[in-house]
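Minutes, project check-in

Agenda point 3 was the complex the collaborators sent over. CS summarized: three entities, 689 residues total, and the question is how they sit relative to each other. Sequences were read into the notes so everyone works from the same version.
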Amino acid sequence: MTESKSGASRAAGVAAAGPTAGIAGNPLFEYLCRLGDDRLVLGHRLSQWAGHAPILEEDIALSNFALDFVGQAAALLKLAGEVEGQGRDEDALAYHRDENEFRNVQLVELPRGDFGFTIVRQYLFDAFDVLFLDRLVKSRHEVLAGIAAKALKEARYHVRHSGEWVVRLGDGTEESHRRMQGALDELWSYTTELFVADAVDATMMEQGIGVDLASLKAPWEITVRETLARATLAVPNDQRVVRGGRLGRHSEHLGHMLAEMQILPRSHPGAQW
Amino acid sequence: MTVSTADDPIKLAEFEARLERGETIEPKDWMPEKYRKQLIRMMSQHAHSEIVGMLPEGNWITRAPSLRRKMVLLAKVQDEGGHGLYIYCGTETLGIDREELVEQLLTGKAKYSSIFNYPTLTWADIGVIGWLVDGAAIVNQTMLAKTSYGPYARAMIRICKEENFHKRQGYEICTVMAKGTPAQRAMVQDAVNRWWWPSLMMFGPSDGTSPNSAELLRWRVKRETNDALRQRFVNLTIPQAQAIGLTVPDPDLRYNAETENWEFGAIDWAEFQAVISGNGPCNRERMAARRKAHDDGAWVREAAEAHAAKQAARSREHAA
Amino acid sequence: MSSETQWPLWEVFTQEGDAAPHEHAGSVHAVDAEHAMQNARDVYARRGKVVSLWVVPTASITASSPGDAGPLFDPGSDKAYRHPQFYKSPRGVKIF
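CS then shared the predicted structure for the full assembly.
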């Protein structure tokens, strides 16, 4: 997908200041925050389904997903804190950073929407995640490779579950098809950000720690297109490119989410829970 | 499944003799209609309580104060969904579908535990619910693990195993907060003050006034009286409160060295009746949330079934 | 098709550990076998331990009825010769 200028400026948080803006002197710390924040924010969005899902079995399934992602986030942010070496642990990073210090892609921060929206977002991310983690397990950073190996097993199940739901609802009733196509159209441009590599990614690749994001795009498209075909859903022709999340420029939604998530530690500084 | 309106006296005598010998009743066994009805009522109330019970605690998942607490709470709320599911499935063995059970909840025909109609106002409520509400539930469920109906007993055994951590995590939250800042201490004491009496009410009316108790005991659905279970809970809980410096809001509470019981004051049964009959602080919100989840999910349930039907038709075509 | 559907019922059997038998764990609602497998995994295997799952449509299970218990099972209870304790061997001889 080529970047269209007008499209890019419509999307929130265009990286106007160049690819290295906002990057601190520690690319590994940045990298780990990106990975951790994606999972924390997505896990948080998924957790909002507990008690509100379409059927009991799915309350339980989505909670499992949420638990997997928050667990991965905790491990990654813990490691980020250690790498940074300034005494911040995973909770300090999760609860005491502001919106513009979060490094997640915007795809994961959008409100949960209806079940169809949640499932489409989940599948688009999961299909990426399996490919990404499958490379990350070969990272030269042993701890990171270990976290990736555990996460990869979880991700393989995630994509199976969300993929089946995409097919089921895409090729279900007229209403379910309409809702799924709507969600897909809305979400499609947000997936571009998953594959945008910048100086941090380049450094991590050079050091044998990180993953070549650009190389994931083609296999991701093949998998996703195959699933969407089974689901009788049309691949959107949306040329917009969303970016900015990796540099702390987000949609309006993340601030509200964090205000809620961080309320207790922020209003009781120093308290233990 | 045997269904009879007027129970055969010989079969009834055999049935009661089986219970007398401590045997377990299984789905295909003959059972009196009243036994079946009582079980459906009791088990579905129990399942509904688990499901509605996801809501007050779910209210704090997005605000849990650490990643660890967030995961623990989410896992606990998830367990409650699982436990509701186990008990619904157990109830289905009595010849009633989950569709109908859910319908009974959503139309207000079926009841659920009054405790879940109270609001969770601070994070301390999450601790106190785990400690007191799950503590009370465990006392009750440990008794039910020996109930005479096999599927119910088996669901309870699984639930008791899984629920072990629920109370512990709650008491841990209370312990940490009781040792915390003055604001945290005030928060946790306030939560105990609000949840104490509703927790005692969870065991149901006093035995003299409980409409179903005698029959449920005779048929070994329940193995102990509401009052006996309530007393056991109080005896367990008071030393736990003392150990972390919290008090319960009962001026009449005193230890009786002779009976070794913590004797407690009179329970406000008028409040219990009001909450049970729909006038608690959160009855409307809880039901509205359940109905919304059900209605919003209707297209998903329908589409999944439609897709499966299409697939089945395709594979039939393929085979033909 | 009614929007009130909770989907068909499936029975779930879990194997908890290598070489253990599959045992009935409970049930789930699901629209097809793959879906039942996933729901069984999420509901009954969320605490580790499980190494294998079976799911079976509840409607496909044929269960014996309590009335048949006598003819079906009692004849098995008086065949003492099926048990090793029925046989005598000379003192001190190792049979296995």
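Noted in discussion: Chain A touches chain B through 51 residues (CB under 8 Å).
Follow-up: revisit at the next meeting once the mutant set is ready.
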